[in-house]
Amino acid sequence: MVLACTVAYLATLVRAQAPLNPPTQPGEDRIIQDFQARVSHYVEQRRKLAGNSPKPTTSSEKLDTAQQELARKSQVTRSQSERGDIFSPEIAAYLRRQIAATLAGPQGRRIRSSLHRAEPIQDVPLHVNQVYPQKLPLQSTPPSLLLNLPPLPKELQYRIVGRNLVLLDVTPKLIVDFVPSAIPSDKD
Amino acid sequence: MLRRWLLLLLVCAHLSQASCGSPPQQPAVVLSAAPQQAQPGLDLRLPLESSSVRFAVIGDSGTGGRGQYEVAQLIEAYRKLVKFDFVIMLGDNIYGGHHSSDFRSKFEEPYKPLLDAGVKFYASLGNHDDPAQERLYKLFNMGGERYYTFKKGNVEFFVLDSNYMDPGQLAWLEQNLKKSDSNWKISYFHHPLYSDGRTHGPDLDLRIRLTPLFERYCVNVVFSGHEHVYERLKPQGSTFYFILGNSAKLMTHDFNSSEQMKKGMDTDRAFMLIEISRDRLYFQVISRAGNTLDSGMDEQLPCLPDSP
Fold first, then answer.
1. Residue B193 belongs to a domain with what CATH number?
2. Closest to B300 in 3D by CA, of B283, B276, B284
3. Who has greater pLDDT, A187 or B269?
4. What CA–CA distance (Å, rounded) separates B132 from B145?
5. Where are the domains of chain A?
6. C-alpha distance across the termini of chain A, in Å
7. Which residues contact residue B247 at a Cβ distance below 8 angstroms, ignoring those fewer than 6 apart?
8. Of the candidates A17, A57, A151, which has its C-beta nearest B138's C-beta?
């Protein structure tokens, strides 16, 4: 049921947001569907672990404990996970193409400028199933880039760390997967 | 011995210059020694009209350092005078770790007198914030959401998460702006769309996504932080833009010269007071040292909402 709802939600978002550029290439629909199925599967597992949605509280201690607990449970459940589980080679290649085409398009200069000005974080060691360092800021993701990437459920976000594209589970701040060097260097 | 005295004199001269910041418009009470005792002489530039909406603005405040505490003491002193009952937060509310000790030392303790007086804080998220924890932290009044809206009198606030402006958030913003019937629409978020700060500068990609909506639906005022300075910019279309990212963090001498800047201050920490009455917005920016750095009144600029 949860899986069906998630797939339906993602499909609605796909219909609602037409990419600015580039157009979908033949065969990419299948790659996007595959990606969405992997994401839905992850989110289904993740919702089971998280249980009911947490309610706002004045206790920062409770929030901290709940976050750490969810991170721990997720790490245990996905202890065998590795890079490419969600961003398979085919999906990673698709995402790289989308990002490169977006950066080469009319918004490219602005997106690069935004990336440079959003306190970029370099040299963070990335490992699947690890918590993003609590004390480090997270760089913002340019909105024009988000318009050209497949939509995600609210539990997950695309984040840029260095030149890597990270799939972040927002609540436990867990690195679910990443695409190394997804952002072409300024010289490319 | 003489050299020691000379050195001491030099240090004192430097400290006195730093605490005064850029030339104040009028001398005010200097609060650096004992801010809590300076209340009788506070310089106030707001008219305090009846039935007006009054609030304070802080940005990049959550360091837990001395600067934050000093600004917080001054905000409390002004609260007694201005009687505002809410504060908007422009992001980077909690720097560094997000353990309960961080929430205490970087928010609950410095603003305790305000919280005890029933003042509500409405937070937006910065790049140093943890959305998972802060959106659920009741004292930030985010209702469990990354972006949200709230109303005070004839003013509606649209609080955005500029860290992650995904299509869902843009659609939400448009929908809520469209249905708003408030006289004043104010949006605030962390990353500035216009800025003359050297460290970060404007977020151009965010600008091209947000300004068309602000223009189409007549957003009157935009507040941002991120740049650790104060800047008032020339209005863009019918929208006034302010940056206040120095309520604890400070980046000194950080401006590029610019035609779009109306007023800038990058030599001391500060907070802002706003009063909205009918079609007028009064503002006053006060430094940690108690000087009024900028103040004035802006009449609502004419705006004709157009169809999407």
1. 3.60.21.10
2. B276
3. B269
4. 9
5. 2-179
6. 45
7. B58, B59, B60, B61, B68, B71, B269, B270, B271
8. A57
Cβ A144 vs Cβ A162: under 8 Å: no
What tokens does A81 get? 């996970």
pLDDT under 50 in chain B at which residues?
1-3, 5-38
* Nearest chain B residue (CA) to A135: B96
Q: Where are the alpha helices (DSSP H) in chain A?
A: 2-16, 28-50, 60-77, 89-104, 108-117, 143-147
Chain A hits for B204, CB-CB cut-off 8 Å, are 110, 113-114
Structure tokens at B127: 């790049």
* Domain hosting residue B279, numbered range: 49-299
d(CA B242, CA B262): 10
Among B37, B116, B105, B108, smallest CA distance to B77 is for: B37
CA distance B225 to B243: 5
Q: What is the pLDDT of residue A4?
A: 52
Specify burial of residue B7 (Cβ count, 10 A radius: 0-12, 13-18, 19+): exposed
B chain contacts of residue A167, beta-carbon cutoff 8 Å = none
Beta bridge partners of A22: none
Residue B29 lies in a domain: no
- Beta-carbon separation of B127 and A113 below 8 A: no
Check A114 against B209: CB less than 8 A apart. no
Number of compact structural domains in chain B = 1
ipTM for the complex?
0.88
Task: Find the CB nearest A137 among B127, B162, B207.
Answer: B127
DSSP β-ladder status, B155-159 and B184-188 = parallel
Percent of chain B with pLDDT over 70: 86
All residues at 6 or more sequence positions from A94 whose CB lies less than 8 Å from its CB, including other chains: A28, A31, A32, A35
- Locate tokens 């004043």: which residue? B184
Which residues have C-beta within 8 Å of that of residue B93, sequence separation ≥ 6? Answer: B61, B62, B106, B107, B123, B125, B126, B129, B134, B140
